[in-house]
Write a structure and sequence with these properties.
268 residues, alpha/beta, 6-stranded parallel beta sheet, 10 helices, 40% helix, globular
Length: 268
């Protein structure tokens, strides 16, 4: 493999829905790289480990990792970033000289999305509530805590949230905490069920889901006049540092959000 012949991709299961190949392939073309970014769908953990071995052997330059392999990606790495170690998972593996380096860009993507779509929000010293206690919650909690937020978790199974909160040194809260939150982040795979009328009038809502772009959660917030942040902004935000790490060049100046919106058939 040379700098002019690079293969990278995204690994998860299921993977057919992923927009990462569209995003990275668009950047590859715009940057004029002799490279390819492909979807990989290992069916189980041994198959994922075998894919990582392909990287060790020099046949891959990098992998983005999505569910359900983020924790395993961290465990298989030889070196880990502080952010990935703190999050307990990795969404980016890069390969060099037979070694695997794990990183997490999800938190960076979340903070970039907030800066882009809710630029007036300053979470330092503010109460932030994250809905859910899965893998997506880990990176979000670490990033928001690093920004000075007081992070609370709400999850239907409280014991799961308590274990995660212990790992991340944050707290588990009840639904009353929503009334004080400056930011509410939905990290659930389903839509949350609560009355947005309980929220502060200046609260910001964020949903990590991007299909549909405006989820029922965000639509309810908009109807009340709240600022909202969509999952596509986070997806693009985490992809930028991943592209630079895997291909060694800056992200080219492309309106990638418009490219993705067109592919999704969305207008805004």
């Amino acid at each position: 493999m040379t700098a002019l012949s690079r293969l990278a991709g995204v690994a998860g299961q299921p993977i057919a829905h992923s927009l990462s190949p569209l995003i990275h392939s668009t950047w590859i073309t715009a940057a004029g790289l002799d490279a390819s970014y492909e979807p990989f769908g290992p069916m189980d953990e041994p198959a994922f480990a075998a894919l990582v071995d392909e990287g060790r052997a020099g046949r891959l330059t990098g992998l983005n990792v999505t569910a359900p392999y983020k924790s395993l990606a961290l465990a298989l790495a030889d070196q880990t970033s502080i952010v990935a170690s703190s999050s307990g998972s990795a969404n980016l593996l890069t390969f060099q000289d037979g070694r695997v380096h794990a990183d997490s860009t999800d938190g960076e993507g979340l903070m970039q999305a907030l800066a882009e779509q809710a630029p007036d929000l300053n979470v330092a010293g503010q109460s932030v509530v994250i809905l859910g206690a899965g893998g997506a919650t880990r990176a979000a909690a670490v990033a928001l805590k690093a920004a000075g937020a007081r992070v609370g978790l709400i999850n239907r199974t409280r014991s799961t949230a308590e274990r995660l909160a212990g790992d991340l040194s944050v707290v588990v809260v009840d639904t009353q905490a929503l009334e004080e939150a400056a930011l509410v982040v939905n990290a659930l795979s389903v839509q949350p069920d609560f009355d947005v009328g309980r929220l502060r009038r200046d609260a910001v809502l964020m949903d990590m889901t991007y299909r549909p772009l405006v989820t029922p959660f965000l639509a309810a917030g908009r109807a009340r006049g709240l600022r909202t942040v969509d999952g596509l902004a986070m997806l693009i935000g985490q992809a930028r540092p991943s592209f630079e790490a895997m291909f060694g060049v800056p992200v080219p100046p492309v309106d990638i959000r418009r490219v993705v919106l067109d592919a999704l058939g969305e207008t805004a």
